[in-house]
Design goal:
Radius of gyration: 31 Å
Keywords: Repeat
Number of strands: 6
Number of helices: 34
GO molecular function, one term: zinc ion binding
Shape: elongated
Largest sheet: 6 strands, mixed
Family: Belongs to the PPR family. PCMP-H subfamily.
Distance between the termini: 71 Å
Protein name: DYW domain-containing protein
GO biological process, one term: RNA modification
Structural class: mainly alpha
Strand content: under 5%
Length: about 650
Amino acid sequence: MRASGKCPDQRVFPAVLKCCTLLRDPKLGEAVHGCVIKVGVDGYLYTGNALMNMYAKFQGMVGLENQALELFDEMHELERSFLTGNESEPVDESEKCVLSNESNDGLKLRSDALDSSNQATVTANRICLWKDNVRKVFDTMPIRDVVSWNTVIAGNAQNGLYEEALMMVREMVDTNLRPDAFTLSSILPIFAEYVDVNKGKEIHGYAIRHRFDSDMFIGSSLIDMYAKCSRVEDSLQVFKLLPRRDSISWNSVIAACMQNLMFDEGLKYFRHMINYGVKLMPAAFSSVLPACAHLTTLHLGKQLHGYITRVGLDDNIFIASSLVDMYAKCGKIEQARCIFNRMERHDMVSWTAMMMGCALHGHAHDAISLFKHMEADGVRPNYVAFIAVLTACSHAGLAEEAREYFDSMTRDYGISPGLEHYAAMADLLGRAGKLQEAYELIASMQFEPPGGVWSALLAACRVHKNVELAENVVEKIIRVDPENIGALVIMSNIYSAAKRWKDAARVRIMMKEMGFRKKPACSWIEVRNKVHAFIAGDNSHPLYDKINEALGVLSDQMEREGYVPDLSEVLHDMGDEEKRRSLQNHSERLAIAFGIISTPPGTTIRIIKNIRVCLDCHVAIKFISKIVGREIIVRDNSRFHHFKDGKCSCGDYW
DNA sequence: CTAGGGTTAG
């Protein structure tokens, strides 16, 4: 059009600007903005709205800065003036003439104009925030309508400027414009983020009063908002009342369940969604796969993976990251690695998921190597990435490397360590026996250390049998977290192990007074696509008698091989025989015995336990793996232990 | 011309 000499009018630009937005091409977009100004149609409502939307969407796009600096000097004065906005360049008729000149050089002129404004533009991107661009457009608009306000409000909300967004809603009301469905669905995510269910409900009420509550967009936002405020019941209710549902409404309700650990419920909605014939969007899998990862239901994860491959969603970075995580959590680290290697692009989350996987399997050097590759790739590690690499170091006892990463986090990336980083460091130093150093690190924290950080050190005190430090640590834990009975359980174990019976008894009395109820630890094993769960002393399993018999036989053989049960930490006062029996009834042993009797010889046995495998069981499983000649893989909350031929992959360092 | 959901976390 430009080449033919036809001067575009205001009706052209909204569509063109939308194209630039959808193409995610800031250079082109700002070139068109230049054109808008030159042609003199920047005062039109729709054009201004489209421009603001474009700049809001371009926020966060980076990568052209260096090029921009190089080109800055070559920039034409004309473009510089209107893009930096210090003075408004009058658009005179001769300029318009040149730009719309009907000549053979038309195309060249056009591309020249684009090129020079590109250079200016990219630089402008660097020197002004998107906010300034939007603001400039917004402030100079002669007329603003609801769409103008909604655009700026959504732009602020999506770019994390929450207070700014909310302020603009109030300003909007002051100019006698009513917030509509667009406004509400833009600001609801803010209250989800703030976990402010009261404000969220206020919006819900407003939506009902104005008959917006059957709007699918508002519905999804409400479902999400309630879910993030731990009010799943309300999420389900909103979903139920929606007259129409699209794939996003379904995905929101599935995610709502998963975020609140209602995995079975979430899977139920997932199946319903498929039955209703809703088109499966990539996001659907991003909620369901993590559920498989949590439940470690490998068979379901594999089915989903097969489905994903068939519909060609393999290359979606969200899905691929979830698959990496799912396979790693289900014990298939090679498969996770394979998917990771096949991804054409890695972002910070996929690197982190892979590192966590390696950490989980004790492959610390792989995790560190991944971290280095990530940095070399120009991907900035964030808070979570550092948790991953520190956890990996902790599981392999790499104290020096961990210290280096811990320091690098603040020094090189300006991320201040949070409680997870301190917990990982405390765990690591503690396992390495550097209890004093761990204590000092925690004591040096910028904020009051929560109980969880001290607990890492307490576990180390137990392994290294340091009663005095443990007492000190428990005191700190109880001060910040008086309900933490777990700490008392460990303390009582530590006293028992040191044969300080009186102290052990004293702690147990305290526990009783606090209304101590032992939360049972649970172990799961998947046999022929069915998950079997065991808790300590539970005899409700149909094969309990056989399991018990098998354990008895194993026990004899183990003792012949030199296994001595470690009775020192058994909680209750009872005779040795009773103590033995109580150890034998630990959930992981029941699960392993069930695995042995219900799978063919030689099959690997995989167990998931919801808390740390106990000291005695760790030793016992080594014996069992040798006696039955099987590989036994036990995953506790934080890591995998591979037992084979009487040895464990993590040695005695666990 | 404007709006909603999703991946990693001891």
